[in-house]
Amino acid sequence: MIEYDISYAAYMPCRITLVVDEHGKGWFVTMDLSVFIAASQMPDRLRQLAIGVRDSLMEIMEAGAFGEL
Predict the structure, then answer these.
(1) Residue 1: closest CA among 35, 55, 46
(2) pTM for the complete prediction?
(3) C-alpha distances out from residue 49 to 5, 14, 38, Å
């Protein structure tokens, strides 16, 4: 992505944060890559790679939420 447009470097590396609220409940938080993907004008091949990254991040967060990690 950086080779296509250096401004994408601001979004890397993709991060997942665990936040515990005032009730002791944990939340996984990350940037909504769907918004980034929809707003960008990247080539289709790059768009598919970005969708793969988004989906992988969601899988990691779901696995963590269900204790599968």
Answers:
(1) 46
(2) 0.77
(3) 14, 13, 13
